Amino acid sequence: MTDSVPSVTIGDVDDLVNPVLLDVREQDEYDAGHAPDVTFIPLGALADPSVVLPADRTILCICRVGGRSAQATAFLRDRGFDAVNLEGGMKAWAAFGLDVVRDDGSHGQVI
Predict the structure, then answer these.
(1) Which of 96, 83, 107 minimizes the C-alpha distance to 10?
(2) DSSP 8-state assignment for residue 101
């Protein structure tokens, strides 16, 4: 991560007002386990013109440990979005005791 990319720790996520959680990992990582109610768009697909994200909400970018989500945050901020990176990514999410699920609602894991 770079110092110029705004980020929050998992303990500070509740300070964000109604954020959109954006998972930018790869499909196999997402399938293994993700946060509930997350929007999934792999980092490489963010530039696709068909991608639509709300311009009126903070976008909280998340990946496995924070590197790809920092890139996504920088990319989105360059395009005028209010985006922040989640430090530690899904590893921090899971370590904090938050739910990690699969699409079928069963317990997932962070790979």
Answers:
(1) 96
(2) B
- Is 35 within 8 Å of 90 (Cβ atoms)? yes
Question: Which residue(s) pair with 86 in the sheet?
Answer: 8
Exposed, middle or buried, 61 (CB in 10 Å: 0-12/13-18/19+)?
buried
Measured torsion, CA atoms of residues 65, 23, 68, 8, in degrees rounded to the nearest 10 = -60
Strands 39-40 and 7-8 come out as unpaired
Q: How many CB atoms lie within 10 A of CB 29?
A: 20
As assigned by CATH, the class of the 7-95 domain is alpha beta
Over residues 22-69, the pLDDT tens digits come to 999 999 999 999 999 999 999 999 999 999 999 999 999 999 999 999
Residues tagged active-site: 63
pTM: 0.93
> Mind listing the pLDDT tens digit for each residue in 45-54?
999 999 999 9
